[in-house]
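Hey,
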Amino acid sequence: YQRRVHGGLRSFYGGFFACKRVCNVSYTKFRVLNIVALVDVQFPIMLTPLHREHYMVSSYEPEVFPGLVYRLASPKVVCMMFSSGRIVITGGKSTEDLENASMRCNEIAGGFRLNPPQKKPPPVRDLQGPRLDG
């Protein structure tokens, strides 16, 4: 009984082709252990307030790692959220797990969206010139 680990595959069926090509073996039993996904929510995320509100399921130490590590219970995956709006989801066993985790992380991050600073309107200038009466 031999175990082999194949990383970097783009699909489940890529495992069959990798075994045939690299190992010259065809396996009948395959088991997916870990799937990784990258999600971009298209807005910056405030990580410190997110960690303060979800401190039981998240860890955030910006001096050690620039991302917030958020552990979802269902599906059992880990989401690494970055202030740029990128989220790395790891630990999924199926694509359905990743889709559900992606939606949950998007909902969570949406509550901590960093709004861009509002531009102040330009000051109103007096077009009549300075007053001379006094």
